[in-house]
């Protein structure tokens, strides 16, 4: 029997693999919305590794700081700091109490705005490729995180969960081109959809776009944009951002840019909604 | 250890580098693609089959850990890049540091363009990578790659009897 030459074998393999990938991508594009077993499996295996590296990176940076200071200087510095702490105890206590009070007020306000079951999660990875804006969280299915769960922070809406593994979840940030959240201008109640822009950070793509706002809608710079709850993902009334720019009419709609209130680059901890927001009150039919 | 194990270890290392970088800079994927370096090295020292398989594996890890809702774009792009680099390495002599840096530069550009083209073909919404950002990413990857490849080569040469 004739044997296949190695060059031809690799070509056959190439064609086969390309076909497999094209099929896999097409299958997802055609409407697969769940999380594949492969994705769950790989997330399950790799996320602990990622968490470990995060901890190792933190430990390494701490060790480096320790080495950077001379030992005696470091010890003296510690003594002086302790003395300073003793002398300023009262002042610090007051300062801590004031800060604590601010944090608690923020948390309370967030809890009142979101009367749903939430879960705190740590951000362990982000933006590994330039095409998507995603975060990796250290909580997954085991902790009650579900697909499409809303992710928020004290400063504003962050995004939604697009993949869940047993102990990790991937979040699509609002800045992602493919993201979307039903929104409303708080002052004038003008509705629209907020999503990311095509351009990256270099081209000023850190703003969100408020789409589908009609030509004569009452929107001005400085208006606060909040979630409307119509998408059944984000609860109603969460702050998304503030209108930064209101441009000319393009087609039927106005070009509106929103500065997000969440500081995506600095996010360390977020809240994940463990339950879907309740359906909005629908008006009864008019007799 | 065989080649597949080393490739898996290298890909694990790339994931660790990417994760560690995220703690130091915002959006590390905009500046460096450690997975691409693994793919290019595998293709240069192995064959087009090795490059292609390493590319598919690297791309899938990237897709699952950092990708959007549609998976497989990076995998397919890196598969093609790995195959092309392997083919080029078989036909041309790519041994000097400069030649390898050029290969990484071209591979990084090709990878980015392929991902964007595939996304457009499958109607997947992507953040655009402006030419300057693309050039920065490719150049940094080429610089890091050439240093890394030289170090690995030296290490391998020492370990050989």
Q: Roughly what fraction of the amino acids of chain B lie in strands? A: under 5%
Return the structural class of chain A.
alpha+beta
Beta percentage of chain A is 25-35%
**Overall pLDDT of chain B, averaged?**
87
Tell me the layout of helices and strands.
The complex is a heterodimer of chains A (287) and B (161).
Chain A: H1 6-29, H2 37-68, H3 71-87, H4 89-113, E1 118-126, E2 134-137, E3 150-152, E4 157-164, E5 169-173, E6 181-185, E7 191-195, E8 208-211, E9 224-227, E10 239-250, E11 253-260, E12 269-273
Antiparallel strand pairs in A: 1-2, 1-12, 2-5, 3-4, 3-12, 4-5, 6-7, 6-9, 7-8, 8-11, 9-10, 10-11
Chain B: H1 3-22, H2 34-45, H3 48-66, H4 73-91, H5 97-121, H6 131-159
Put the structure in a nutshell.
Chain A has 287 residues and is of the alpha+beta class. Chain A has 4 helices and 12 strands.
Task: Label this structure with key terms.
heterodimer, A: 287 residues, 6-stranded antiparallel beta barrel, 12 strands, globular, B: 161 residues, mainly alpha, Arp2/3 complex 21 kDa subunit ARPC3
Structure description:
The complex is a heterodimer of chains A (about 290) and B (about 160). Chain A has a single domain (about 35-275), classed as Thrombin, subunit H (Beta Barrel), CATH 2.40.10. Chain A starts with 5 loop residues before the first helix and ends in a 14-residue tail after the last strand. Chain A has four helices and twelve strands, in the order ααααββββββββββββ. Chain A is globular, with a radius of gyration of 24 Å. Chain A is of the alpha+beta class and about 290 residues long. Chain B has a single domain (about 5-160), classed as Orthogonal Bundle (Arp2/3 complex 21 kDa subunit ARPC3), CATH 1.10.1760. Chain B contains six helices and no strands. The radius of gyration of chain B is 15 Å and the shape is globular. The model of chain B has no long low-confidence stretch (mean pLDDT about 85). Chains A and B meet through helix 1, helix 2 and strand 1 of A and helix 1, helix 3, helix 4, helix 5 and helix 6 of B.
